[in-house]
Amino acid sequence: MDRHIRRYVAVWWSESFFTDNGGDLHEYNDLWKFESSTGEWTWVSGSDIPDQSGVYGIKGTGSTNNNPGARGISVSWIDASENLWLFGGGGHDSFGNPLLLNDLWKFEPSTGEWTWVSGDDEGGQPGVYGTKGIARVFNKPGARTAGVSWIDISWNIWLFGGWGYDVSGHEAYLNDLWKFEP
Amino acid sequence: MKEVAMRRILNAAIMSCILMAIAGFSGCVWGDDDGTSNPGLDKCTTPAFSPGAGEFTSDQNISISTSTQGATIYYTTDNSAPSTSSALYSAPISVSGNGANLTIRAIAVKTGMSDSEISNGTFTINYLKVASPRISPAPVKFNSSQTIIITCATDGATIHYTIDGTDPSETTGTALTNGTSFTLSSTSTVKAIALKPTMLASDITSVNYTFQQWTWVSGDNTVDQPGV
């Protein structure tokens, strides 16, 4: 393994094993699948060139042309339909700037399409908290890295803390708990 | 002899009837169902209703007229036979309200003329139902605020809607002008009803809108908070 590459995010999907890259000096946005039955790795999407900007496309519309920017220390999970989800991390936004991110992505293995679902295509964004306990489509966690996440029995996504931006755009450790209804 | 006697009796009876008719006696031969006709006189024209009797989808004002110049019209609404003791017709009679059912019986009367036949008319009001509202856009999963438009095909209808799952009514929900919109930013059930005076309220239309949405559940919205 390249000494500059660190593997931060790994998620299970069916009997395959996907992994996303994070970088110390460089970051990648390549997506890989590992077939446990054959022991083979497949390069599924993204670039083999580091530090790629995100290609966001139209929010809510999937495309094989879309790609999250290269990043690391994101959070990820799988939904009931076995789609892969990815949130934030430290990486490259749509402008190529290396910043903390709050973008939420979905990857559908059946189509090979990434969909930019929520958040911003520009890094370093503060959170929009709204009213505690009240769901709103314009709420969004601030850009962050190193948060932790869970899936509940209803396939809602839970996200806690990390290092990132609060409501005022101050950057430090966070203790906010978020729920996302996909 | 017997035939002659019979003829005399008959002639006497006819003569007596003619005399009684001239004297104003009305109980001899021609009685109407209410016994108010005057035999041998011109009869008032039977009153006519406008609109004619029948079933209507809106409130009605019923006019009664007779072509007999100078005749007075009396009417009842309790199914009894009208007479000069009944209500005097002077203005259209209102039949209003969904389910209203009114039978009007009327008679025209004029001095020197025989009373008219009685006209009977039954008027029923059954309001039409306002068209069900249409809520758009179609419900797919949204990741941005949506402009919700509610329309109703019935001209002049107003909309009442809710977004909390309760049923709107004439007295509940938010009023909205037909064809206008509001913004929805979270997962909600939109219910709408269309209303119009003198019409039955529409059926309730319900649409579930789902948003991909974040909820700030707990913790702080500022950084570097100590644990509690």
Count of helical stretches of chain A: 0
Number of strands of chain B: 17
String of helices and strands of chain B:
HEEEEEEEEEEEEEEEEE
Query: Radius of gyration of chain B, rounded?
Result: 35 Å
Unreliable stretches of chain A: 1-19
- CA-based shape of chain B: rod-shaped
Radius of gyration of chain A: 15 Å
Helix content of chain A: under 10%
Low-confidence stretches of chain B: 12-35
Output the structural class of chain A.
mainly beta
Task: Give the terminus-to-terminus CA distance of chain B.
Answer: 136 Å
Biggest sheet strand line-up of chain B: 2-8-7-4-5
Beta fraction of the residues of chain A?
A: over 45%
Order of helices and strands of chain A: EEEEEEEEEEEEE
Helix % of chain B is under 10%
Helices of chain B, by number, come to 1
Q: What percentage of amino acids of chain B are in beta strands?
A: 35-45%
Q: Give a quick account of the main beta sheet of chain A: strands, pairing sense, barrel closure.
A: 5 strands, antiparallel
Q: Sheet bearing the most strands of chain B, described?
A: 5 strands, mixed
Form type of chain A? globular
Distance between the termini of chain A: 35 Å
Ordered list of secondary-structure elements with their pairings:
The complex is a heterodimer of chains A (182) and B (228).
Chain A: E1 5-13, E2 16-23, E3 31-35, E4 40-45, E5 71-72, E6 75-78, E7 84-92, E8 98-108, E9 113-118, E10 144-145, E11 148-151, E12 157-165, E13 171-181
Antiparallel strand pairs in A: 1-2, 2-3, 3-4, 5-7, 6-7, 7-8, 8-9, 10-12, 11-12, 12-13
Chain B: H1 2-23, E1 48-50, E2 54-56, E3 60-65, E4 72-76, E5 87-88, E6 93-95, E7 101-109, E8 119-125, E9 134-136, E10 141-142, E11 146-151, E12 158-162, E13 174-177, E14 181-184, E15 188-195, E16 205-211, E17 213-218
Parallel strand pairs in B: 2-8, 10-16
Antiparallel strand pairs in B: 1-3, 3-6, 4-5, 4-7, 7-8, 9-11, 11-14, 12-13, 12-15, 15-16
